[in-house]
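Dissemination and training. As part of the outreach component of the grant, students in the summer workshop were shown how a complex can be specified as a set of sequence lines and then modelled as a single object. The example used during the hands-on session is reproduced here so that future cohorts can follow it. Participants entered these lines:
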Amino acid sequence: MTDKTIADLIEDRFGLPTEDGRDMPANGELAAILSHRSHRRFKPDPVSDELLRVVLAAAFSAPAKSDLQQCSVIVVKDPGVRAKMNALVASQDWVPGAPAMLVFCGDNRRIRKISEARGKPYPNGHLDSFLNCAVDAGIVLATFIRSAEAVGLGCCPISVIRDRIEEVSDLLGLPDNVFPLAGMGLGWPAQKGWVSLRLPQSITVHTDRYDDSNLLAEIDGYDRRRDSRFATPPEKQRMTKEYGTAEFYGWSEDKARQYATPQRKQLAGFLASKGFGLD
Ligand SMILES: Cc1cc2nc3c(=O)[nH]c(=O)nc-3n(C[C@H](O)[C@H](O)[C@H](O)COP(=O)(O)O)c2cc1C
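and obtained this result:
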């Protein structure tokens, strides 16, 4: 038992005082969700096939649009394929140290094959089909993270695989109407990790009508709360050649710099080449 309450965990997560959940003990599923953290450093111990299957069974218990279940997961086991995957995400120095790797895919192929096998047309190959399978894969991915954490494993998604989406897709033999949403590094955590501060509900939750009139002031407060917990050292600032070394380098400056150069412009072309209609 713990004397901590859910309110304490919410305070840890947002860095703001709250009385919400003060009378709720900090245990059970809610406490685990509030304590989520990505893990990128792992012990060398393997994850057994059985445990992986258990975690995947829980992950695939996620809800799915129209019960279509449009997610597929590739478990990367062959050392040669794994080495190639590691090389394709070379910017992620932590990936080779993850004992297990998976790739979560949006899969609009199955329903198309089923329609064909049942002698029915599939006149829905437009943007909504892409969105539905991408969302299904995202929900399975999020449920996988929760399930892995529930058994003491740690993990971190790898969207960087989309920088080399064609090569990843070819390497994994992904057919038409299947696309890789994100990889996942998985293992037994070597470190406790840390709770990463989230944006306040004052800007992420709206009542009745969207309102971001106070956005920049709220972001400024968030930047400062984050900085007081984990300041970014000057050597970790991005694009200092272009934008200099900022005296105060908060989350918003980091994200604005991150998105100041084009990324993954080839995605629409790749998806179109795989048969996804994006109109
Ligand atoms: C779809 C998705 C893709 C991600 N891709 C990467 C990635 O390529 N590399 C990485 O280090 N972290 C990646 N992350 C992890 C995020 O950076 C992390 O969730 C975020 O910083 C918040 O930290 P937390 O998960 O510890 O709360 C990804 C997360 C998600 C949900």
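Residues 36-38, 40, 92, 156-160, 182, 196 surround flavin mononucleotide (CB under 6 Å). Students were then asked to discuss how this feature might be tested experimentally.
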